[in-house]
Write a structure and sequence with these properties.
The chain is 28% helix and 31% strand. It is of the alpha+beta class.
Length: 199
């Protein structure tokens, strides 16, 4: 699969920046408030909203969590998906690329009002990403490795690392920082299946 053109990436980044601004303003928050709630610096929030900086996966997860949205929910709103849609055609599945690691996330399914989400992630060789505990605070998640190998570390006392191969599934436990690492020379593709936690 070829990646999106630079123009598409730029337009998508601008839509995402505009949506973050809309979400913040809808809550009556200043950039300082969003920064404090997300743990992202105010300078970074300002640059992201002005489309001067592309947020990394970690930054985007922190912002989405502060806005009480999943990553998929934020991306879908940025793409203008507001109606309940049960069918998500391949050509309409939004793909986002982390500018820091080259990690790509393709949203297979997510719809407002539906409790389940599914995404496909490709982690390039010799890359890793650590997502903060708050990104798991409101969801239950399962990872299914489609191809390649994945090392997943849950950072709690003590750290717990699980090595996953194609076909392996892992359900997440209590929310904590989690590192996804591909130490192999080949890309690793995995599916993420998640549902909102019930009260």
């Amino acid at each position: 699969m070829t990646g999106p053109s630079p123009e598409t990436v730029n337009e998508a980044g601008q839509r995402l920046a505009q949506q973050i601004t809309r979400e913040r303003e809808a809550r009556g928050w200043s950039q300082t408030t969003l920064a404090a709630r997300s743990g992202v610096s105010r300078a970074a929030v300002s640059r992201i909203e002005r489309s001067e900086m592309s947020p990394t996966a970690v930054t985007l997860v922190r912002l989405a969590g502060a806005l009480d949205l999943t990553l998929a929910g934020l991306l879908l709103r940025a793409e203008g998906h507001t109606e309940h849609e049960r069918l998500c055609r391949s050509g309409a599945q939004h793909e986002w690329r982390d500018p820091q690691t080259g990690y790509t996330r393709r949203q297979l399914f997510a719809a407002p009002g539906h409790p389940l989400e599914a995404a496909q992630v490709t982690l390039p060789p010799q890359q890793q990403v650590t997502l903060p505990a708050e990104s798991y605070a409101h969801i239950q998640q399962v990872v299914w490795v489609v191809s390649g190998t994945l090392s997943l570390t849950e950072h709690r006392a003590p750290d717990r690392t699980v090595e996953l191969s194609a076909g392996d599934c892992l359900g997440f436990g209590t929310p904590c920082d989690v590192t996804f690492r591909n130490a192999s020379p080949e890309p690793c593709t995995y599916a993420v299946l998640l549902a909102r936690r019930t009260a």
